[in-house]
UniProtKB/TrEMBL annotation:
<dbReference type="Pfam" id="PF00348">
    <property type="entry name" value="polyprenyl_synt"/>
</dbReference>
<keyword id="KW-0479">Metal-binding</keyword>
<dbReference type="InterPro" id="IPR039702">
    <property type="entry name" value="FPS1-like"/>
</dbReference>
<keyword id="KW-0808">Transferase</keyword>
<dbReference type="GO" id="GO:0004161">
    <property type="term" value="F:dimethylallyltranstransferase activity"/>
</dbReference>
<dbReference type="GO" id="GO:0043386">
    <property type="term" value="P:mycotoxin biosynthetic process"/>
</dbReference>
<comment type="similarity">
    <text>Belongs to the FPP/GGPP synthase family.</text>
</comment>
<dbReference type="GO" id="GO:0046872">
    <property type="term" value="F:metal ion binding"/>
</dbReference>
<dbReference type="GO" id="GO:0046165">
    <property type="term" value="P:alcohol biosynthetic process"/>
</dbReference>
<dbReference type="InterPro" id="IPR000092">
    <property type="entry name" value="Polyprenyl_synt"/>
</dbReference>
<dbReference type="InterPro" id="IPR008949">
    <property type="entry name" value="Isoprenoid_synthase_dom_sf"/>
</dbReference>
<keyword id="KW-0460">Magnesium</keyword>
<dbReference type="GO" id="GO:0005737">
    <property type="term" value="C:cytoplasm"/>
</dbReference>
<protein>
    <recommendedName>
        <fullName>Farnesyl diphosphate synthase</fullName>
    </recommendedName>
</protein>
<dbReference type="GO" id="GO:0004337">
    <property type="term" value="F:(2E,6E)-farnesyl diphosphate synthase activity"/>
</dbReference>
<dbReference type="GO" id="GO:0045337">
    <property type="term" value="P:farnesyl diphosphate biosynthetic process"/>
</dbReference>
Length: 345
């Protein structure tokens, strides 16, 4: 398993120098260069790197052997391309949500002198990802496909975020029919399954020259339910009654987010319970938020979620067992990923 955080992180300094050297050619003043360097360091270093390391792991499994030093570095560079583009989405997300901390550190927009300039910094992070891709992969026979894949996956992720936030920002009194399982699954698929889970695997397959129609189809079949499971698990926090869980659930309620919990609750609730949900969901009123949470408890949504998650895991395992490894895609890619995800929860 090629999930070695320290080794992956050791590749970063040279890539940061590449970015800074290139942007210096634009005539960027020293003060702004320092700001860019801090942006890169603060927003990309110190995370979990699951996506970036997934690129390397997929590449190694597809080749069916350990990687040479040069092969590892090339795969790590592509992994960092993913990490820079992903970081741009995280910075944008934190700014919109008003999040104060991420990975134990202040979020970028909360740093001194940043505020809404984080929007530009988010765009810069995405641009740096594509600058690195061009510098290190423009001679790769799959360069055009890599560019297209990154753009397409980014568009899918942003579409998921748009759906997520436009539902949460709906006008008070709008029809609650918008809280559907279909919309909930679309958000999870676009934001997590397609971008966070599927994209790094496809990048690794391209690098190994193993991106075939069959492998694309097989990857999609596994990563869609796997990404949904990961998304809903993080969202649901099924450790349930901890103080952190209650705060997280309350935040989703106040924000009026299209979560698995509210879509299931609306399906199970009686008319009286539905009225309580409609009155309090998306409302920044502690008493009404508590009422909604109590309805969730009455409906035993935790039990329903465990049953749903168990069925979804069974589907994932079935799809994994059916993977045809003859064209380079290995079951171990998904097995390793599930192990890493389980450790991260």
């Amino acid at each position: 398993m090629a999930y070695d955080r320290k080794r992956f992180e050791s590749v970063y300094p040279a890539l940061a120098r590449d970015i800074l050297s290139h942007t210096k050619t634009y005539g960027t003043p020293d003060k702004q260069m320092d700001r860019l360097e801090l942006n890169l360091q603060h927003n990309t270093v110190g995370g979990e790197y699951i996506g970036g390391m997934m690129v390397i792991n997929t590449y190694a499994h597809a080749l069916g052997r350990g990687l040479s030093e040069s092969e590892y570095h090339q795969a790590a560079k592509l992994g960092w391309v993913f990490e820079f583009i992903y970081a741009s989405q995280i910075v944008s997300e934190d700014t919109k949500k008003g999040n104060e901390y991420r990975n134990g550190n202040p979020t970028w927009h909360k740093m001194p002198g940043i505020a809404l300039l984080s929007i530009n910094d988010s765009s810069m992070l995405k641009c740096t990802g594509f600058l690195l891709l061009k510098k290190h992969f423009q001679n790769n026979p799959h360069y055009v496909e890599l560019v297209d894949l990154l753009h397409e996956s980014s568009a899918q992720a942003e579409m998921g975020r748009m759906l997520d936030w436009t539902i949460a920002r709906r006008e008070k009194g709008d029809d609650f029919n918008i809280f559907t399982s279909t919309n909930c699954e679309t958000i999870a698929t676009c934001m997590t399954a397609d971008f966070v889970v599927r994209l790094p695997i496809l990048l690794g397959l391209y690098l190994a020259d193993a991106m075939t129609p069959a492998n694309l189809s097989q990857t999609q079949k596994v990563t869609t339910p796997l990404g949904q499971y990961y998304h809903f698990q993080n969202e649901f926090l099924c450790s349930s009654e901890s103080e952190r869980s209650v705060k997280q659930v309350d935040w989703y309620i106040k924000e009026g987010r299209c979560t698995w919990t509210i879509t299931q609750a609306l399906q199970c609730a009686n008319p009286c319970q539905k009225e309580t949900l409609k009155d309090g969901y998306g409302c920044d009123n502690p008493a009404k938020v508590k009422n909604v949470r109590e309805i969730f408890a009455e409906l035993q949504v935790h039990r329903i979620f465990h049953e749903y998650a168990s069925d979804l895991l069974e589907k994932i395992r079935k799809e994994m067992a059916g993977v045809d490894e003859s064209e380079g895609l290995k079951r171990a890619v998904f097995e390793d990923l599930m192990e890493v995800m389980a450790k991260g929860r």
